[in-house]
């Protein structure tokens, strides 16, 4: 286990006070449709998505589609995860097809099974079990922890009855923020993610907040810092 850490002083006010969720953001719909539209029925699905996405909207989409159509649940989670980045559509198409030429390929059926498996395990057994599954038996090439924790986040947000059961996202931005606060998490392995969840849980418990709710507040701090520096790429 990592040593206990007091709540960072810049995070504390966001835990103590009412918190307004991140506003929905727009994304390059045409690029997503160009790279993924040929995969099954994704072109009309992407065309029908809201023009702007936030966490509650993506959670609802995942809840609606995950069990019968994992791809239609996975895609909005990845759109949200990549924000306005120009490389997101190609990378997600490569994940789904397991091909470096995704425009010439179709969805790899093993990816469907593994996404469904990660969703099922996380929903039934919690974030740590979901992380272990996605990092081992349900490992998908090109889908590392930074983005499969986004899949797990929305999967558990769609199914959990308690905030403690919602998986927090752990990506490079969060790792850098923790490092800036003298906290080192060993990324890429289940024990590291378990330590991260434990840390956020300890910070949130006095305020009746689950680990993902703490993580969302960390993202707010990251976002505010980016805006102050003139970098407005969505998180």
Structural commentary:
With 235 residues, this protein is an all-alpha fold. The protein is built from twelve helices and two strands. The protein has a two-stranded antiparallel sheet with strand order 1-2. Helix 5 packs across helix 9 and helix 7 runs antiparallel to helix 8. It starts with 11 loop residues before the first helix and ends in a 7-residue tail after the last helix. The relative contact order is 0.13. The model has no long low-confidence stretch (mean pLDDT 94).
Could you give a quick summary of the protein structure above?
The chain is an all-alpha fold and 235 residues long. It has twelve helices and two strands. It has helices at 12-16, 29-36, 42-48, 55-65, 70-82, 88-97, 109-125, 127-135, 145-157, 172-180, 190-204, 211-228; strands at residues 25-26, 52-53.
């Amino acid at each position: 286990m990592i040593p206990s850490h007091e709540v960072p002083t810049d995070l504390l006010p966001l835990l103590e006070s009412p918190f307004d969720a991140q506003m929905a953001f727009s994304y390059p719909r045409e690029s997503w449709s160009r790279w993924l539209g040929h995969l099954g029925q994704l072109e009309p699905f992407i065309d029908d998505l809201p023009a702007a996405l936030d966490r509650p909207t993506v959670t609802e989409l995942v809840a609606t589609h995950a069990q019968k159509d994992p791809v239609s649940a996975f895609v909005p989670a990845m759109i949200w995860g990549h924000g306005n980045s120009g490389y997101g559509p190609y990378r997600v198409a490569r994940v789904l097809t397991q091909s470096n030429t995704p425009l010439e390929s179709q969805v790899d059926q093993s990816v469907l099974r593994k996404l469904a498996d990660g969703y099922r395990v996380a929903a039934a057994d919690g974030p740590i079990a979901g992380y272990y599954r996605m990092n081992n038996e349900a490992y998908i090439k090109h889908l590392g922890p930074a983005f499969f924790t986004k899949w797990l986040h929305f999967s558990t947000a769609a199914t959990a009855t308690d905030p403690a059961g919602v998986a927090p996202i752990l990506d490079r931005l969060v790792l850098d923020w923790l490092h800036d606060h003298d906290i080192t998490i060993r990324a890429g392995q289940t024990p590291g993610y378990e330590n991260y969840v434990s840390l956020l849980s300890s910070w949130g418990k006095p305020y009746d907040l689950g680990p993902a709710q703490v993580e969302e507040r960390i993202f707010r701090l990251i976002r505010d810092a980016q805006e102050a520096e003139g970098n407005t790429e969505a998180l």
